[in-house]
């Protein structure tokens, strides 16, 4: 893999792809404790063929971003929330959690070390950070490992869904990504492995991603392929699904707070796929997706169009402007949401 060079990048046309940047952070867990971690230039991982992560999926990950401000400084958005979620994900898979304060420090080190790769403010891009925790122990029985590797690497990114704020079309699937009582609340690779076939089916049929329904009744909206769902009712209320098998999205909890501030009376509640008529607008929300308008949802061959298939709705636009205003440092947000790097 060739190392990325700033001069080869077009910051105004970044997709969502891997770039081998100069530095990543790595720390190892042996003998019951985390060893001191450090920045390294080595973007490869040397693993036993029998590492538990490879066979039984004992691995968890995170996603967060750093933003170049107008004044040239750099913000990271709520890294403590990702540190905490990774802790919970690790506990779900019986892994040694990486200490949350050290997680945030390591994020900052990786951002600083790769700062030439943070897209300029005007480009609308950001530096995506991918913390990863894997079980490296050689085990062939289905047992939790005792050795772990924690790493954080980074890459400059643009829009996750092509078109950015242009609405895209979604479709429900007969498949589930996570079971009731399974690992849906944890950010584990297995959930994403389960989503690849339905995702591919959706893409081949011309949709940008899947709307997963609840695994017990296939009646209630869970989440989208790689984002949580929200709808804005005709009288302006912000609603998002409540379910034990979806990812507790940092963006969702942030928007629940901002929607409250904006008088949108937000709620988390079960949302039936048969009750889409209540919504004037709908969207996907997540770190990679930011806010991406959902133009339509097709369920059992019937297409439901929300605000428009080509234009973003006014409430979705207002939430987007407020969220990225805070992330890029143009607007003051609730205390502690952004950290200067
Ligand atoms: N749901 C899924 C399945 C995701 O992969 C993501 C992305 O992280 C989200 C929701 C949104 O979570 P967050 O806002 O913390 O990025
Ligand atoms: C994120 O938004 O950070 C995600 O994890 C989405 C992703 C799987 C690309």
Descriptive overview:
The protein is α+β, with helices and mostly antiparallel strands and 341 residues long. Helix content is 22%, strand content 28%. Strands 1, 2, 3, 4, 5, 6, 7, 8 and 18 form a 9-stranded antiparallel β-sheet that branches. Helix 2 (79-92) crosses helix 3. The mean pLDDT is 96.
Question: What is this structure, in a nutshell?
Answer:
By secondary structure, the protein is an alpha+beta fold.
Order of helices and strands: EEEHEEEHHEEEHEEEEHEEEEHE
Outline: globular
Quote the average pLDDT.
Answer: 96
Bound molecules: pyridoxal-5'-phosphate, 2-OXO-4-methylpentanoic acid
Strand content bin: 25-35%
Helix/strand/pairing category:
alpha+beta
Distance between the termini: 29 Å
Helix tally equals 6
Provide the low-confidence segments as ranges: none
Largest sheet: 9 strands, antiparallel
Helix percentage: 10-25%
Cα-based radius of gyration, to the nearest Å? 20 Å
Enzyme class: transferase
Cofactor: pyridoxal 5'-phosphate
Keywords: Amino-acid biosynthesis, Aminotransferase, Branched-chain amino acid biosynthesis, Lyase, Pyridoxal phosphate, Transferase
GO molecular function, one term: branched-chain-amino-acid transaminase activity
